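How a chain folds remains the central question behind the approach discussed here. The record that follows shows the chain in one-letter code together with its fold in token form:
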Amino acid sequence: MATFKRFEELPAWNAATDLAVAVFKLTEAPSFRFKGDLVNQLRRAALSVANNIAEGFERGSTAELVTFLYISRGSAGEVRSMLHFATRLGEMPGEADAIARLVAQCEAVSRQIGAWISSLQNSDIAGQRHLNDASRAAYEQKKKDDEFRERFAAYRAKMEEMLRDGTWAKPGVEQPQLFPVPSAQAEKPAPPDAPPACPACGQPMVKRKSRDGAEFWGCSAYPACKGHRSIR
């Protein structure tokens, strides 16, 4: 999951701001003239969607962020309700298509906020305000562990697929990489005395000995990777 440091980077905030801009443009149409109460309320509610996301994010705790996200989602519902009212009023048929698009935009923003709320409620992190050096380090390590497990699961699935269809170790067939080598590093020629790269994950290999004393190259990432090759 991506980590955002500023509310301006949040996809939900950007979607909510786009919604507010669209509402302001819609209510500038001539058919909204002399409907000041509706226009003002629509604009305030539309601005509230993005503003509550920003305020909740800046509070620094997950609990407060969730509270403000619920308020933001409620404001999106308020905008949608007033758009439906504008349609039923029947005095702005020229804006019917634009209103319908805005209703769909509101629903999309609500779904995005709802999904974010759900992920936060299932999180064991209380928020940036509550992170000290130790808990932050533990959190970052947990993220790295989770990412490795996901990468290893994908690597294992690909390996099993290649073993089933018989393409494993065939000449010209690209092998799955558990630890992809950066392109700049891959293009750099290795020193003559450098150990070979693991054929399974690309990590450097080290010399190991089998039970009978024979030397072979084994992956330095063992036991996570069991890649090996003979020494010639």
About this structure: The beta strands are 205-209, 215-219, 228-230.
